[in-house]
Amino acid sequence: MTALAVDVKWPDADPVAEGSGTQSDSRLGHDLKIRSMVAVAGEPLPFVWPMRNFIHHNPLHGLEHLPFEEAIARASDLFHARGYLRRTDYQGLMHEGKIDPDAIKDLVGEFLRDRFPDQGVTTDWDQGLDLWRVLFTLMTQMDQPSAGNAYPSTDAILAQLRPFLD
Amino acid sequence: MKMLDKDGIGVQWTLYDLIDRLFGSRIESTLNELLIKGCMDFLDEGQSVWRMPGRRQGLFRAWEAIAKRNHRLRLHGLDVGHILEAADGPEAAIDLVMKRLEVPERLWMEYFAVELSKLHGWAGFVRWRSHAKEYYWQERNPADLVDFIAIRLVLSLSLLEEAQKRYQCPFGYLAWVQYIEQRPHECLLRHELHSGAILPDYAHRVEVALDSGDPARIKALSLEYQTEKTQREAATRARRLQELCERAGIPRAVLARQPSHSLRQMIETVYAFRSVEGFVWTQALERTYIRALLAKLAEHRGSGALGSSDSGPADNRGDGSRVQAMFCIDVRSERLRRQLEQLGHYDTYGVAGFFGIAINYIAFGKGHEVALCPAIVAPRNVVLEMPHQHEQHQDSLFHLATEVVHDLKATVLSPYITVEAVGLLFGCDMLGKTLAPAAYNTWRKQLGNGRKPTRLMIDKIAKHDAMDLIANLQDEMVVKAVDRHFGIKREAITTGMILELREIALGNAPSPSAFARRFDIDPAAEAFFIARLRLEYGLNPDRTKIQLEHMARIGFSIERQALLVRQTLTTIGLLDGFAKLVLIVGHGSTSQNNPYESALDCGACGGEQGLVNARVFAAMANRREVRERLSEEGIRIPEDTWFIPALHDTTTDETMLHDIEQLPPGRLTQLTRIQEDLAAAGRLCAQERCYELGESAADSPEAASRCVKRCSMDWSQVRPEWGLSKNASFIVASRALTRGLDLGGRAFLHSYDYRQDTTGSLLEAIVSGPLIVAQWINMEHYFSVVDNEVFGSGSKIYHNVVGRFGVMTGNVSDLRTGLPAQTVFQGERPYHEPMRLIALIEAPLPFVQSVLARVCKIRDLVYNGWVRFLVLDPETGSANLFEGGVWIVQGQYPQSDGGRATAGPHDQFAPSSGQILPQWRTSYERFHGRRHEKARDRR
């Protein structure tokens, strides 16, 4: 007789030994738990289809349950990505007539009204320090700020600003 | 300055991220490279010559088998063997690594999310595959995210062990928490030094202090450094603020007079604004577009520039020369529709380019199915392409199908025969496409002209025909098996013997067979032969059942065909007044050496060309039986009306009519004019597009036409067309609203007549299907332009095709997702304008609100601001924009039809006395309203 040519993994222990069923169940439960955790962790990942049939899709599809701007903030953290163009690119679009400066003015006004609901809707903010004009200028005339990680406090900035003004 | 936060471990950073950041190593880069190479080997779909062994066991098992004896890993100083020996399976490997790293289980999920985000392209492809159960390569070589992350973690553990030895740094989670708590200043300085953020004049001192290992010295330097860096950054910010105020027309003297609390308020407001500035720009872009669109519509209506079709298609019937044409909603159709209409005698309609026909398609000579429908639809029916000469067998579907199967069998061999010849031709291709693309392409087309005309099999096969067909094929198998195993030819055996052998194999008859008795085959040999028939030749009940199930999916019943045609015609409001010729125009693109070619094809056809769906729709609509059923439902298509499929090539703007050999002779006379009209409209489109492509030399329609054709054939061309770039709006309305209006190829146009939609079901179907596809397209472009490196795919120049399923940048990179830079950028400047899709719907506002309330997917997208809804209410003449949780009246627009919108069945959607439709007069009120809404939602 010839031996079987099939390589069979033979169990070392008796499968009906006491407690082995419980261990096996526990292992299965733990494996399933790991699978569930990986599945949930992968939900924000967008599907990538084979190139043969390019499917346009929303890269943030997994975050569509959030408001648009919140999803962008979350994706920026997760993927280390930008959610908007650089300021200078938007300014370029504005110079091409694609963005109406009046629309920017309206939106800046809305931001200020939202931030200072008790100060009325006048544009003459705080005795000559016209924040509406400052923010509009910030958007339309200033280039992209350089990145910094020191995050100085308002007082620290003010302390530096005073000598400039004097 | 912010100290490193221990709470970020496992949530923001992996453990090797910390070593990279604090010790200047490149573990993440090494880990990515190793994992990418593993994925490339496993996921390959036929590109590599030497295939990875053992792939059928799954990603982790196949990788594990190789990793245990992988010298490449050992060259990196890594030994994953001992980790793999201790873990049986991917879940066990994950468990083992996470426990070895002492990461608390409560953080595992977030740790996995951080790991997956490192290579989101590869992980996204593996995730897609694991959901695509019927994908051939997934069935064959299964992979999922658990496998992916298990490999990543095993490799990372090995790299961490090696790094600990090299840098004498902490190893597990708990050790790192302790390290960050006990040595915050050292961590800060290390991070500054290795992240490149350090002040240049401090770099050397920091390095020397860290090398000394003296905690007191490190702390003193850290405190000094923090003070200095904060002061310098504060000074920079102060300078910028002063410059800002000067530019804003606030002189330094005025600023100096401001009390500190005012300056504080300004500083805080400016820096708070930075977090919302991008969103403000986006909204400004959208508002500008919306205002311009509404102004354009109002002016257009006011000028009375509407075409004759505004009076309705029914009036056009009297003129036999009029032609109707159905186009895809794609933004690129807008130009061709407009140009065609301006030539005169054309009425055009827009509908999703699969024309409501979702199919799996098997092309002639191919053995696999391709889904031709939007990615959100799962097709159930199969359509086969077959040679046109089978037409004479109209009497029997059985004969037809038999011939199709034979044709398929015959052509399966052809790829193997022509491989060598194709290799030779490819050499010619390289020279021809580079030196003289236009002339070469003409010659190449002539070579391929031997392809026979085909027709599509759209009818169902009756069950008994399908069973006969399978039995016939099984009998053929028996004959081949008998010849192969016993050397007995067909002429020596009777049909009865063949049938009996087949029935024995299927378990329907007992042995021994007449065949065995006739040729003295002993019972053992006969039993062995029957077993071979079952296993090797697939003659068994299970296989037969599967074959029958496959056959049952072929074609559509007549009732189903009538239903599909009716649905599409009803959706676009084409229910009467049919012209004698109706064009069904799908679209596709032509480009060379372009892995992204399918991104330019029809999104509604799953990234394929739309011709097949157009052919199927036309074939169904031309059937007498279908028209009889439609007639019973009130849609009377005249006998002399004929539907002709066509393909609009969006790269060349040429439109080719198809299946014209099936056209009744009486209709042929009109064809020449239609073909000339399509060519003329195409040339005008090409001229428009050449301007945007920057081809200034194309100063006439003819020159433009030549130019775009050259683009389609030039294999060095990285931008054969702009595709769907600049898409901005999705207009669901009667063509009367936009006819004659130049929308610049930026609007998806879906025909819709709310008066035909008393229940809202048609609008429901549009917003839950085509609108979703358009939103995906819109968002793909949005994110590809705002961050092309992360969400787009970078420059095409550096792309390499990998595994026949994707592209990488260079030799090893994350799998590139999204659109290439050349699709969304013009030079350094963004060409696509990133804004959310503006869905403009012409229907009464309460009616639209009721539909929105029913379709939760689109409602959530609208409420969460992923799509902007703009409703033109024909009954009130108002334009209403949904913004910040409420509907805002944008103004009145002139009604086009002088009271077309009469009170009618939509009255039921009018708000009841208790229902509030908030409409804010000012943005101030709106913001308060929005806060109120948000507060209510929170409650």
Give the SSE layout:
The complex is a heterodimer of chains A (166) and B (939).
Chain A: H1 20-41, H2 68-79, H3 87-95, H4 101-115, H5 131-141, H6 154-165
Helix pairs in contact in A: 4-5
Chain B: H1 15-23, H2 27-43, H3 59-67, H4 71-75, H5 81-85, H6 90-100, H7 108-118, H8 120-131, H9 136-140, H10 145-167, H11 173-182, H12 184-195, H13 203-212, H14 215-247, H15 252-257, H16 260-274, H17 277-302, E1 323-328, H18 331-343, E2 346-351, E3 359-362, E4 370-372, E5 381-387, H19 397-412, H20 414-435, H21 437-447, E6 454-457, H22 463-486, H23 495-505, H24 514-518, H25 523-535, H26 541-552, H27 558-572, E7 581-588, H28 611-621, H29 624-632, E8 642-649, E9 654-657, H30 671-693, H31 701-713, E10 729-733, H32 735-738, E11 747-751, H33 761-768, H34 770-786, E12 799-802, E13 806-809, H35 821-824, E14 825-826, E15 829-830, E16 837-842, H36 845-854, H37 856-863, E17 867-873, E18 878-883, E19 886-892, H38 923-938
Helix pairs in contact in B: 1-10, 1-12, 2-10, 3-10, 6-10, 12-13, 12-14, 13-14, 18-30, 19-22, 20-21, 22-23, 22-26, 23-25, 27-29, 30-31
Tell me what the structure shows:
The complex is a heterodimer of chains A (166) and B (939). With 166 residues, chain A is mainly α. Chain A has helices at 20-41, 68-79, 87-95, 101-115, 131-141, 154-165. Chain A is elongated, with a radius of gyration of 30 Å. In chain A, 33% of the residues are buried. The model of chain A is unreliable at 1-20 (pLDDT under 50). In chain B, the strands form five sheets. Chain B has a six-stranded mixed sheet with strand order 11-10-16-17-18-19, with helices on both faces. Chain B has a five-stranded mixed sheet with strand order 2-1-7-8-9, sandwiched between helices. In chain B, β14 and β15 (829-830) form a beta hairpin.
